[in-house]
Amino acid sequence: MDASNITKTDEDRRAIEAAGSREAKNDFLTAEQYHILHLTARILMRTVTMSDDEWSTALSAVSEAIDRYNDKQGHFWNYAALVIESRLRDHYRSKGRNELELTVGPEYFSGDFDEDAEAGLQIEIQEKTASVVDTGLRDELDAFTEELEAYGIDLFDLPGSAPKASKTKTACAKLILAFFEPPPPLTGELKRTHNLPVKDLISRTGIARKLIDKHRKYLIAAALIKDGDYPGMADYLPRID
Is the entire prediction scored with pTM above 0.85? Predict the structure, then answer.
């Protein structure tokens, strides 16, 4: 079927409108953040979190897809999936790695089923993708975005602030746990001052201020998620025991 003859969905139209301004694009990316995360996980066939390089790559790819999308390219999320996969391949190629040996075709994320395709797999993945809405993650995202504003943090600041190296991830996990060690938990001071309690964190962990300052936004966000009513979003943080 000619892609130009496909009836546009509301999301297709929203994607076209999002290209109209930076604010509209940011609003679209914020609203669809967990859709993007879930789509990336399905393409890679493994879990992806907001602290992974793949998340930043996918977010940038969808932003690029918004800029390039037009009426002749079928459904937006089909097109965006192709761009995400292409950029992930570029990402791995630049690092001398090949981790996209098995991918899910973007047609699996469409609402229109091909009768000759593997309908069972399509239905399973479509249902899991739709669960992003059903499980209330959008409501959590809206509430969390609003809470972050009090700390001068934009949601799109977080990928750049997240730890990448294994050693740094371990240090950040230790810092986040330190928030909840008595006496007393540091989350009260964090919420009262809207500032990271750096001196207390150094005292409790012995971790250098330089590392804490570098990952300040991530640490604040992680502490708020762990302390708040965000059960769905907590699944996208690195495991912290």
Answer: no
